[in-house]
User: Fold this.
Amino acid sequence: MRNVALILRRELASYFATPLAYVFILIFLVLANAFTFYVGGFYQSGQADLRPFFMFHPWLYLFLIPALTMKLWAEERKSGSIELLMTLPVRAYEAVLGKFLAAWLFTALALALTFPIWITVNYLGHPDNGVIFASYLGSLLLAGGFLAIGSCMSALTRNQVVAFILGVVACFVLLLAGYPMVLDAFRGWAPETLIEAVASLSLLTHFQSITRGVLEARDVLYFAMLIAFFLFTTTVAVDLRKAD
Amino acid sequence: MIRTDHLCKRYPAVTAVEDVTFEVRPGEVLGFLGPNGAGKTTTMRMLAGFLAPTSGRASICGHDVQSEPLAARQSLGYLPEGAPSYGEMRVGAFLEFIAELRRLPAGRKRARLEYVTERLQLESVLDQAIETLSKGFRRRVGLAQALLHDPPVLVLDEPTDGLDPNQKHEVRTLIEEMAREKIIVISTHILEEVAAVCTRAIIIARGRIVADDTPLQLTSRSRYHNAVSLQLARVEQLEAARAAVAALPAVAAVEVSEREARVTALPRAGAMILQDVAALAAGQGLQLKELHLESGRLDEVFRTITA
Assistant:
């Protein structure tokens, strides 16, 4: 675990050593608020809740998270530093976990910095803070899922742009797995059980069920398994393809 | 000890390394020589455990690099080709990070950081981002990283590439000093370096070991080994000198350079011709600027073996 912590610290410091961290946080905050007020109709709804705020998180994350994860492994391979890292006494899974947790902690920070909107809604009325808390947790879990997917896509290539595009596509497919856009690709040839299985993978469905304020174990478990699966895949990809 | 046993690395299209077997013992400095693309870096990557061999094994201090990777890596200091590191990190923070991953206890960490900083002259750049440094500094940061935990085995891929002559000299002195108690493998394409620091040289071409010998023995394979070269004061005497030297029974061939007014006499196998040539020069009244015995030319051996 000490190696994980060391790598986490190094990664996090490297975010702030470049403009990346500041640009990411700024854009996230501006877009999250702009969507809430202009598209979500925060004032017009006349309700003291943060639904118009959380509703857009999946779509914001869809582009911002792959932008954050595209460099995780692709850059290490491009610059050759992966050869240094993988010949130090560090196991591949420790590096994968360290990098993932650093990115997750960083997104958590960006998410935490949206607190003014929580203060605003509490100033304007009496929202159900339990629902808001659950929604924040759901948003963080969703970000974790996207980060794990993005990390896996980054481990597959040494080209960051390719990693970004693969990341967006993979996140999009999993996000909408329960919707006709994805399910129609399976209808007609796949058995009903497979279609149901694909539909149950839908990130959006699980996210929405959490943001309604029902924090169910199966939703949390879903995200935990999703993250574990993609981090495992990342580890395998890093191990097999580190020298390519 | 480093041991490789029939190490092979095959890719679908090419065989990068084929049947490489050798052992390196403490006190030895092994120079890995070969044309670009001969398999030097691939072999070193397999030693470091970065690449898995297609077949064969490699071990460091008795630890198989594939089945006991962590133990093998602890005993190894490795400088990858091109000395990669994290560009956005500052030198001091980078070395600190490596020291932490190497599990150096606090006191020893400070001492080792001081040692490598001083030996590789990094004091002035400790607070600079690595990506802003010159190639020479980056290489030295890579070396510092490899030496940090004072490992018994060092594998250095082109340690002096990009260094200026003074820095090269520094690094060679450092390698010589460490050579007494360590096992060191370096790869290089600078032949003088092999003669200067290596106790043994392996020449690798098209993935195979084609020579494994001391630098001295390798140079003696040169056709210039024990050749006698004389430079004349007056270029008009060149033709006379050539003819006279060529007539000596122990001389196998003569090479002439008009530009330098130089005649080089190559001996027949095993013959010593210095006395004969010197006597001849005195007898013929040749005016000499220089007369010397060549020990052999490593670059010529290298070309002959790897061509």
The first helix of chain B runs from residue 40 to 48.
